[in-house]
Amino acid sequence: MRIGILAVQGAFIEHEKQLVSIADHFNEQIECIEIRKKSDLENLDGIILPGGESTVQGKLLRDLEIFDTLQAMILQGVPTLATCAGLILLAQSLENDSTMHLATLPVTVQRNAYGRQLGSFSVSSNVGEIENFPLIFIRAPYITEVSADTKILVAVDQHIVGVEYKNQIGLAFHPEMTDDTRIHKYFLQKVKAYNSATV
Ligand code: GLN
Question: Is this structure's pTM higher than 0.85?
């Protein structure tokens, strides 16, 4: 399977490392493609949108002419895992920002929701079926509203920080910065299921 990781800015290497460490135990080849131009989107089976700075990433998506094709692929059902700034790129609406980006995920997100001072923190929680996952937050957003058909995967202190909607998984935290690979494995299972359904 070919997984494209948006690599215009931010923490994309960490996702790549996570996939490489899973590859040994996954009985399918995993190829990582760093997305920096439109043609990198060709023949991808899955997409990862990493953390970083969403305003910069959103601008680069447009400047590099990746935006329209990427948006169409997500809407067509290509499995997508988005973390932190990636979640902000997917959100259909932002509470404290007039910019909207890909707008494929029917949720409202608040950027820097924990304030800029409370830089980083970590807690452990269940994420969907995955028990006791270490959640690392870095100047993180959280989700303030979800559509009725969006599944809430995890909430911390009554704030929603992980959701799944059809092919999209949006997380406010950083599973790629832990050595726990269960969320990436879950995503790869989704990619596999999508592949076998579309062949
Ligand atoms: N605060 C960043 C933003 O608004 C996201 C932080 C992150 O990705 N770690 O884009």
Answer: yes
